[in-house]
Every structure is written in structure tokens, then in C-alpha cells.
Amino acid sequence: MVDLSTTFFPLIPLRDVVVFPQMVTPLFVSRQKSIAALEQSLMRDDRLVVLVAQKDAETEEPKLDDLYQVGTLAEVMQMLKLPDGTVKVLVEGSMRVALDQVEDGAEHFTAQVTELSEVLVDDETTRTLIKISVEKFEQYVKSTKKINPESLLAVSGIGQPGRLADIIATYLGLTLAERQRSLEITDATERLEYIGQLLSRELELADLEQQIHDKVRFNLEKTQREYYLREKMRIIQDELSAEGGELSEINEYKQKIKKCKITGVALEKATKELSRLEKMMPQSAEAAVIRTYLDVLVSLPWGKRSKEVIDLRRADAILAEDHYGLEKVKERILEYLAVRKLAKEPTGTILCLVGPPGVGKTSLVKSIAKAMNRQFSRISLGGVSDEAEIRGHRRTYIGAMPGRIIQALKQSGTKNPVILLDEIEKMSRSYQGDPMAAMLEVLDPDQNDNFTDHYLDAPFSLSEVVFVATANTLDHVPRPLHDRLEIIPISGYTEEEKVAIAENHIVPKTLRKHGLSGKQLKLNSPTLRKIIQEYTREAGVRGLERSIASICRKVASQVVKEEVESVKMQPNMVAKFLGPPRVVRENEVKGPQVGIVTGLAWTETGGETLSIEVNTMPGKGNLQLTGQLGDIMKESAQAAFSYLRSHAESLGIDPNFQETQDIHVHIPEGATPKDGPSAGVAMCCALVSAISKRPARGNLAMTGEITLRGRIIGIGGLKEKVLAALRAGIKTVIFPRANEKDLIDIPDYVKEKVELIPVSHLDEVFALVFKDSAKKRPPAGKSRPTIAGGRRTAMGRRD
């Protein structure tokens, strides 16, 4: 007999296996340390080895903490090495043991153990428990049919509760934790009670499994029966159809496919899917998917076209009727139509109208479709971040549908519509793909002749479609997509244009919409001008349209209540209907101030004015920039500050001002991000004004990028900025001389109302901004503005 207290035995960690005493168990050993432990046990006279389950079967190299503390001391009976290096071993459990000391050696684990003696009580309760457990096990064997019935003979003859519990545990599909728990219970009666509870649970699961099996079998028999009856019904319907009855669903699809003139790959797909549908049960889910696919396929305009009519005189009349102004835009559209009329093949030109909201981009595209006698369809691309929105979803997905291009063609009903790609710059990339990349194929004339939608899985030609895109800005459009577009910029409307648009278009349309006549509500030009000046500040006319609609609603209410019969709106009545003015022209109200200068900026919605404020305070020359400024604008402020320090003496400023003062530059409306270099001139003037305490003119705005040498270089969006200054009531605008070429885009009446002064150096700007510098103005010349009739002009002539 081996002395357990002084002997270290080889130890093998087992994965998902628990070996019980007096049970013969086959094991497959593949880990090198475990094989070494086996070989060590064979070298012993008693061939004993400790078998302990590890807590996590996925652990490849277990440590001491990964092992349970109770295992089995077993004898190695046979060992066989397999060709793949795995060792098959047959072991017989000897006794339960507790691990006293475990050593993780270089070659294998060794352990010193203590036997866990079994507590056995032979009483009536134990004998009854043995009988009940045998009966339950017999029921389990009969119900599960997974265990050999001969195992009942081995179990029924056992009268020891501990031995019976261990044998039943090996037959049940227990988890590792449950088997380990059974191994650790030393009280034989308690262990048999525990196994009896698990046996009851397994019996319930076996009964439930049998019930589910019976239901599945019944459903299969029912389905087969229904299939037989439906096949019989289909044959009867075919016979009736052959005798002149109603056409079957299959024949209807065949006629539709023939009627819509599908050809090529699409025809092959339609024929194949129709053949599949014919062989399916009508109520199956796959049949419903095929029907939907065929419905989409036959509803597309494979051979239907609008008869294109291009008459430039008619097109010019339509554009003039629908839109006021926008002469350059109309001219470019007429040129596009002329080329399409002369060219035998489509040119592949994709127009892109770029401008702020509310200037009529969408209505221009509708006018193009009307002038070409084509159908119009609109695709809103704002917020699209899934490539499948353009190319369609594959039919393997539930709820799959074609992409927006195919849906637009289906909606238009013709193969050659005008399709508006609205807000093309607002598409974004996501984990679902890049819709802008998918749009490259759509807009490329060399590729879209065989555009394949994922849902259709067949090519559809887009070569006859006229695509026109719109955008507020092109900053977010990738370069490859940008190269496929011909950009037509649309600027914001001037005040005169807005008045004309309101009189000719907005007022009549809004009156009709609210059920009013021209006699019940009259809006004259001064009233419209007051609404534009004090209740809207925008590049387009949407806000103006909303204001006029608000007046119409109030007048309609008064007419229905019989309070008035008609209203002739005067400028002094606007506040009664629209409330206090929403736009306060600060630049017109305030006179010259120290440290405050008005700059001009361009945004997606048109031009805007920026009030740039500078304060000085005791400090050590720190420059603080606030107002959510972008990196480029911060660099402009740094450049202005550097120029100011290097020219302090010539500007009448203490050269050492930075040693005693801190400077804070702020641009109000801090919640709005601001960026760009064109505010450099304005920030430099505001810094000079604040540090020198000289007031800057309040009715003057400026724009321009500056260099460290004081040069003023060109900017973009001059027309929009001048219109913003006009809306704000500013009378004078300073701009870079490099932008004189852009004056041709500014209407003459705007030039009459706003004094436009080109400059090329900061010295010229200081002479204009600060009143005390008027006498030091640089001599007149090509690089300086001239005086005409007491008023400074950009062109050197009298206004």
C-alpha cells in the first residue's frame, strides 16, 4: 500500500473530463507535459497518476490556480501512441483525493494528495433513495434512447449509494461543474440525492425534447399533405386555363415581360426567376421575394422614352418665366441645350448648380426638364451614407430594394428623364461604404451604359438620362467626383432682385395657396423692401416667402371673421403683422468705435458680416483669440499682430506695448465656427484701433488676406460679401485690388449704393479706416483710390 502522505504522484490536468473512482475511462492526451506525466507513471510500480479537471477547457497551459482541488487517483491500464503524436490511455479510478501540494515541474506536474474517505450510512432512507434513483434512470434510458439498455443491468445490481451515484453521473449529459461537484461530495447519501435531482431535470428535458419532436413530425406531415393538395389544385387550374379561363399568374408575368421589351441579361434573369416561381408553392416566402423582384423588373422603362424637343426660344421663354435674374446661369443652360441639339451622341456633361439655399437651384432643373420635354425626378442625397442607397441591396437581405437611381427611373416612367441629384455634397462615408464612390459610376458616361443595380443583378443603361446636381458648397465633394461635374455658380439675390421675384412670383403664388385674391391683399414695393430689410437676412428668398405667407394667414383670418374685406399693406403696417424687426443693422446704427471693425465672410448660405472686437488690458503681451475660430483665421490674427509689432512706430503706437498689455480678439456668435484668411485686414485694423485708441469708421466693411509685409492679396466670394454689406446697410467696402476682375459680376445698381474701394496694402486701408489718418493719405496713383466729386470711388469716376 502506498503512503500518500510522503509520495508525490505525476499529475495530469484534464479538459472537460472528470474521472470517477472504480470507473474505467479512455483518455486522449496531446500536451507534452501530460504525456511526460503518463510516462513517469508507467515507470512506477503502482502505475498511479493523479487526474484533476481544469476549470477552463480553453486554457492551453494551465497553472495551479486553473485546477480544481479535488481529483481522482487512477491506475494506468493501457497506453497507445497514435501517428499524430496523441496518446490514447485507459485509466481506472482508484479513490477520491484532495490536492495537498502541487509542484509545476519543468517536465510535468507532481502532487502530494490525501484520500477523501466516503461517508456511508446504511439505513432505510438510503435504501429507498437507491430504489428511486434506479427507477428514474430506467425511465431516462427509455425516454432518451441515447443510452444502451444493457447499462440498466449494470446499474440495477448496485446496492452502494456512492457507487450508484458515480455510475449514473457518467451516463448523464452533465456540465463539468456538475460532475466536479459530484466528485467532491464525500457523503454517499448526499451525493446520490444530488445526482437524483440532476436526473429529474434530465428526465424533464427528455420529455420536452420528445414533445417538440412529435410536433415537428406532425407539421412535416401536414406540410406534405398541403403540398399534395396544392399541386392537385394547380393542375386543375392549368386545365381550366387551357379551356379559356382566366390567365394564370405565370402567364400574366410572361405577357408583362414581353410587353415591357426586356432584353439581354435582364430577360434571362426574368425567365429564370419565372421558371423558379412556377415550380414553387405560392405561399412560400421565396415565392413572395421572386414576385416582388419580377414586379420591379417589369415596371422599369426598358424601352419607353420621352420624345425630346429642344427649342431654344421656347427654353429661353420658360427660364425667363420661371426665374428672375440669373442671366449667366440661364445663358449657360441654353448653351448646354444647344450642344445637345446639335450633337448626335450625348456629350456626357453633368451640370452642377452651386449656390446658397433658396436661390432656385431645384426649380432651375425643373425648368430644364420642361424645356427638353422630359420627365423630371428628384433624388435627395442629404444624409445618405450607405453605398446600397445608390447601387441597391442584394436580394439575399430581407426587405431588399433597388437603389435610388433605379427607383427614380421607375417613378419617372421613361428611360430618358432629367434626374436631379439634390445636395450631392451632403453624402458621407460610413462603415456601410462610400456612396460618393458609387456615384462615380452613375455619372461617368463611359460606365453608366451598363449600370448594374445589386437588386436587379442585370445591367440598365443610364446613357440617355440627363443628370443635374445641386450643392451648397463643393468643399466636401471628392476630387474624382468634382472632375465629372461642370460647375455653374449661383450667387445670392440682391435686394432689387428679391423685390422683383416677390412681385412676379412669390406674392401671386402665396395668395393662391391661401385662397386670397389680389384685391383682398395688396403688397407694394416699399412694403416688400421693408420686409426684406428688417425681417430677412439671407441669400435666397425662402425667409421672404415665409414672411409673406405669415401676412397672408393673418389677412385670411381677418377676412373669414369679416373684420375686413381687403388689406392694402403699407410699410408702417408690417410690424403689426410680423412683430418687431428681426434684423438690427448694428453697423448703420453705431458710429466710429475703438476696437470694433466690420469684416466680411462667405458661407454656404451666402455672404455674412462679422463684427471683430478687440480689447486691451494690463498684461505681458498675450494674444487671446475667441469666438470658435479655425486654424486659418487664428494664423491671420497672428500675422496681423506680427505686422502691428513690426510697424508700431509708423502707426503711432508705443513699440513696447506688448510688454504692458494683453490683447483679446473676439468675433461674436461664438457658437458658430469661423475660418478662412479673408478676415486678416479687418483683424489688423481692429488691433490698431484698440491699441492706439483711435476710433474706426462704423459704416465701412472690409475683406482681404494680409501678408507679414502688409500686402493684401485676393479672396473669393466678392459678390456675396458685397451683397451682405448692402443688406447690413454698409455704405463702403474695402476689397483687394486683385479682385477688381470680379466687379463685372456685381450689378450696377449695387455699385451705385455701395462704395467699392480696391486696395493693395495696409497703409491704404489705415488711411480709409481712421479719421485722424485722412491727412496722411498716400498720394493718388494706380495703386491708390482717387477722389471724385467729394466721394472716393473704386473706378476713379463720379458716381
Keywords:
28 strands, 7-stranded mixed β-sheet, 799 residues, disordered C terminus
**General form:** elongated
| Unreliable sequence segments | 243-247, 773-799
Q: Mind summarizing the main beta sheet?
A: 7 strands, mixed
Instruction: Report the radius of gyration as a whole number of Å.
Output: 45 Å
Structural class call reads alpha/beta
Helix content: 40-55%
Strand line-up across the major sheet: 19-20-18-17-22-25-26
**Beta-strand content estimate:** 15-25%
Average pLDDT rating: 81
Write the layout of secondary structure elements.
Layout: E1 9-14, E2 24-29, H1 32-42, E3 48-53, E4 70-81, E5 87-104, E6 109-115, H2 124-144, H3 151-156, H4 161-171, H5 176-184, H6 188-242, H7 249-259, H8 264-279, H9 285-299, H10 312-322, H11 327-342, E7 350-354, H12 361-372, E8 376-380, H13 388-391, H14 404-412, E9 418-422, H15 435-443, E10 451-453, E11 458-460, E12 466-471, H16 479-483, E13 485-489, H17 495-513, E14 521-523, H18 525-535, H19 542-560, E15 567-569, H20 574-578, H21 586-589, E16 593-594, E17 596-603, E18 606-618, E19 623-626, H22 631-646, E20 661-666, H23 680-692, E21 695-696, E22 700-702, E23 705-706, E24 712-713, H24 718-727, E25 732-736, H25 748-753, E26 755-759, H26 762-769, E27 786-788, E28 791-793
Parallel strand pairs: 1-3, 7-12, 7-13, 8-9, 9-12, 14-15, 17-22, 19-20, 22-25, 25-26
Antiparallel strand pairs: 1-6, 2-5, 3-4, 4-5, 5-6, 10-11, 16-21, 17-18, 18-20, 23-24, 27-28
Helix pairs in contact: 2-6, 4-6, 7-8, 8-9, 10-11, 10-12, 17-18, 17-19, 22-23
